[in-house]
Amino acid sequence: MSKEQIGKLQKFIEKENLDGFIVTRRESVQYLCGFTGTAGIIVVKPTNAYFLTDFRYKDQSKKQVKGARVIVTPREVIASLKDLDQFHGHNIRYGYESDYLICNELKRLQDNLPGSIMIPTVDAVEQFSILKDKNEIEMTQKAVDIGDQAFERILGYLKPGLREIEIAAELEYQMKMLGSAKPSFETIIASGYRSALPHGIASTKKIARGDFVTFDFGATYKGYVSDMTRTVVIGKATARQKKIYNIVLKAQRAGIRKIRHNVRAEAVDAASRKVIDKAGYKKYFGHGTGHGLGLFVHSKPRLGPKSEDVLKKGMLVTVEPGIYLPGWGGVRIEDDILVTATGSRILNNAPKNLLEL
To answer: Are residues 255 and 323 located together in one domain of the fold?
Structure first.
């Protein structure tokens, strides 16, 4: 697959009148050539490609890298570009992923490729990773399964008095034991009034009886990620908690039902948002309904009210509406979903009925 993926980038290079493309983002590097280490870049030219790494990854790169010639540099990779004549020339136009390359790295590339012109691009690599092949779907499904199983295990661990950071640590430990390389993003555990924070990273707050507890987390399997959210109640749920939860669940199901090949992503968002708006909680749902995922935990398509994306068979997306009531609490429910020709397939199997623990 790597030759095919690099070939797509080479067509992009030709279309954009570039002389080459420098890929530094780890996820993009893995997508293009299969390398999973932490130090490596790819320089793609119109007819060939080079993978550069240092001595630490000499053996790993030879085993993993496909579709590119491996160059083991004698010093730090970007600094070594200055020593490699094949990448130099007058006014060579190199594209780069402007959304992900930090200013310091860009300056270092310019300093070590004198005479070159760095051309910013958007979604140059990501656009090719949006449609998933069978292997990518299987890897993502494995990451989803790990998340589901870890969530099942954590339910028996929960009790009043535990701090959110303790729960996050246990959840990440369970994912690791189940085969996750790392969390796909910083784990969110938000309880009680903090569950009204859409991105409430785990704190030292102790969970208490009667609290909502929102879990938003993901696993990583061979570079592919999952992203799920569940909200539970510690003890018996109140009538208000049940009401808010059921509105969000209804909204999520409405969004999922809308998913299929050639449907506008905006329409999925609208289907979920309509349920919440009709229930009177419009101003308490302030983010998009979902996003794409795979090697990248947040990517196209974007499921939001202003999205111009169109869903296609083979895309993987999340559907995650929520209601957040400041000072009281909130609910979000999220699944990872494969777009099919006739509808969708939910990858998660974790329960979505309101759990009272």
So the answer is: yes
> Are 40 and 57 spatial neighbours (Cβ–Cβ below 8 Å)?
yes
Report in angstroms the alpha-carbon separations of 264 from 268, 271, 291, 321, 327.
7, 11, 13, 17, 35
Domain that holds residue 76: 2-129
3-state DSSP assignment of residue 258:
helix
Q: Please state the φ and ψ torsions of residue 94, each to the nearest 5 degrees.
A: -105, 125
**Span 181-234, pLDDT tens digits:** 999 999 999 999 999 999 999 999 999 999 999 999 999 999 999 999 999 999
pTM higher than 0.85: yes
Grouping H, G, I as helix, E, B as strand and the rest as coil, residue 50 is strand
Copy the structure tokens of residue 49: 């490609």
**Phi (first) and psi of residue 350, to 5 degrees:** -65, 140
Distance (Å, whole) CA 200 – CA 7: 41
Taking residue 167's Cβ as centre, other Cβ atoms within 10 Å add up to: 21
The total number of structural domains that make up the chain: 2
